[in-house]
Each structure stands twice: as structure tokens, then as C-alpha cells.
């Protein structure tokens, strides 16, 4: 995909995500108002903000990966077999991209798949009440990536590649480590996420 193609895809993703996020925001505000009426314990403002960021990020993530071309079933007719468009052998596609005539697609595939999942690894432990550990976040990253690959396969919106799951999971791990680094720095300064109310 060219740079212009990526920019067009990003703008389209943001437009669709804005609509879906607005719908979620309306429901979330209704839930918060009901909580206040019932006298429930107040929600920490900073954690709530991070939740909103996480939801917007997830909407963008699924829109740009699984639903970027909409929902189409007609492309199934072009499949020669059930495994057409599926790569289950690790790093075969990545190596092919590396030895291609241009390194742009290799860099886009490698860094893109890693960077897209860094926010998940960082936001997930910050939002959940019971701070999850490294392996839980890694599992969530792998399952999220797997769900995207399955949706891409069902709606024929991309190649379902095992490399994507590997790189996505690596991105989640990096995000979690960045989260732990921030927490460690905050502890030194006697600041925690739970201080923000």
C-alpha cells in the first residue's frame, strides 16, 4: 500500500470510528448517569479517560484492519480453496517482503503490525481494576489479533497471516513493558494512576 493509500485509509477509518465512538459515548454517559443516580461509588476520572481512549483505539483498530473495505461476502467466489489467502507458516510472507524490490512494504508490515498493538498492551492494565499481569495482557493481545485475522478471512479484507499475530503480540508485550516503566517512574515520584480522581 502506498503512502497516499495509507493516508486515505486513515482518514476513512477516523470518519467511521468517530460515528461509532459517538454511539458508544452516548451509551457510556447514560450508564454513568444511572450509576450516579443509584449512588454507586464514584469512578476515577483518569481511569475513565483511559477507558475512552482504549475504546476509541479498539474501534479504529478493527475498522482499519478487519472492516476497511466494508463487509463483503461476494469475494468468496474468487477463492480457489478454503485456505486461499491464509498463511500458517511463520515468517514466509515477511521474508518475501524483505527481499522484494522495495523495503517499504516490509517496514510497513513489520512496524505497522507491532506499533498498532502497543496501545493495547499499555492501556489494558491501566484500565482494568485488577491490574493484569504480563501473560494475561499477552494472551489478550494474541486473541485480539486472532479475532482480526478471522474477520479478515471471513470478510475477505486481507491476508490472514500468522506473522501478523506474532508481531501484534510482540507489540502488546512492548506496550505492557512501557506501562510498567511508566508505573515505575511514577512510583519514584510517588504518583500512581489511582491518585487521579
UniProtKB/TrEMBL annotation:
Domain VanZ-like, residue spans: 55-182
Pfam family, any one: VanZ
Superkingdom of origin: Bacteria
Listed transmembrane segments: 6-29, 49-71, 106-128, 135-159, 165-187
Protein name stated in the entry: Glycopeptide antibiotics resistance protein
Native species: Acetanaerobacterium elongatum
Keyword rRNA processing assigned: no
Keywords: Membrane, Transmembrane, Transmembrane helix
Amino acid at each position: 500500500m502506498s503512502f497516499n493509500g495509507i493516508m486515505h485509509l486513515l482518514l476513512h477509518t477516523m470518519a467511521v470510528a468517530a460515528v461509532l465512538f459517538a454511539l458508544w459515548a452516548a451509551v457510556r454517559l447514560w450508564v454513568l448517569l444511572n450509576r450516579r443516580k443509584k449512588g454507586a461509588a464514584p469512578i476515577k476520572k483518569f481511569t475513565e479517560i483511559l477507558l475512552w481512549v482504549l475504546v476509541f483505539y479498539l474501534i479504529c483498530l478493527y475498522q482499519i484492519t478487519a472492516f476497511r473495505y466494508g463487509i463483503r461476502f461476494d469475494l468468496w467466489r474468487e477463492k480457489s480453496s478454503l485456505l486461499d489467502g491464509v498463511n500458517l507458516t511463520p515468517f514466509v510472507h515477511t521474508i518475501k517482503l524483505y527481499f522484494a524490490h522495495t523495503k517499504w512494504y516490509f517496514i510497513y508490515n513489520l512496524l505497522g503490525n507491532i506499533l498498532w498493538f502497543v496501545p493495547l498492551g499499555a492501556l489494558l492494565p491501566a484500565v482494568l481494576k485488577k491490574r493484569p499481569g504480563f501473560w494475561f495482557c499477552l494472551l489478550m493481545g494474541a486473541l485480539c489479533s486472532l479475532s482480526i485475522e478471522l474477520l479478515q478471512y471471513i470478510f475477505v479484507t486481507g491476508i490472514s497471516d500468522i506473522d501478523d499475530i506474532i508481531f501484534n503480540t510482540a507489540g502488546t508485550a512492548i506496550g505492557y513493558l512501557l506501562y510498567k516503566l511508566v508505573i515505575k517512574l511514577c512510583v519514584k515520584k510517588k504518583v500512581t494512576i489511582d491518585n487521579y480522581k
